[in-house]
Amino acid sequence: MIQRIQSVWLLLAAVAATLSFKFEFYSGINSIHPTFYKITATESMFTLLLTVAVSGLAFFTIFLFKNRKLQFRLSIVGILLEALLLFVYYTLIKNYTSGSISIWALLHGAILLFFFLTARAINKDEKLIQESDRLR
Q1: Residue 63 near residue 1, CB atoms below 8 Å
Q2: What are 95-128's pLDDT values in tens digits?
Q3: Is 135 among the domain residues?
Q4: Which of 36, 41, 95, 117 is the 20 to 30 Å CA partner of 70?
């Protein structure tokens, strides 16, 4: 299970998604919060649910190593959920008058990268299995 590279990528995606609960994505000032305010994954119920879904999906998908097709599909779903989460963060940022994106926002880019690398590794495994079946 852990010997396969996609399991490592999925574990890293789950860890990065979990770390986004602690570290901010954006910090700044808006009309609702006149003081300096930091946006984390716990900003709203929707961002919280999406972050939990991405983290849980990445962790759950590790254990589907025997079913590569389902693992590939769930990796694609993870990419879509993370893209939706980034869009939600972008809509939250539009309400701020001043501020800056934190360096920890790179965690979300890393999650997208890890899901992409997972899908690519699963696809490579599937092609290898098909080629070996053809040779038999």
Answers
A1: yes
A2: 777 888 888 889 999 999 999 999 999 999 888 8
A3: no
A4: 41
Residue matched to tokens 């962790």: 59
Overall number of domains in the chain: 1
Question: b/e for 77-104, b at 16 or more Cβ within 10 A?
Answer: ebbebbeebbebbeebbeebeebeebeb
Q: Are 88 and 50 in contact (CB under 8 A)?
A: yes
Amino acid at 38: K
6: Cβ–Cβ under 8 A, 6 or more apart, which residues? 65, 71, 75, 117, 118, 121, 122, 125
Read off the pLDDT of residues 53-92 as tens digits, 9 standing for 90 and up: 999 999 999 998 888 899 999 999 999 999 999 999 898 8
Q: List alpha helices for the chain, DSSP H.
A: 5-19, 45-62, 68-93, 106-135
Q: Is residue 87 part of a domain?
A: yes
**Residue 2: is its pLDDT beyond 60?**
no
What is the DSSP code (8-state) at residue 135? H
What is the extent of the structural domain holding 53?
Answer: 7-128
Per the DSSP assignment, residues forming a β-bridge with 101 are 26
Nearest to 54 by CA among 90, 22, 14: 14
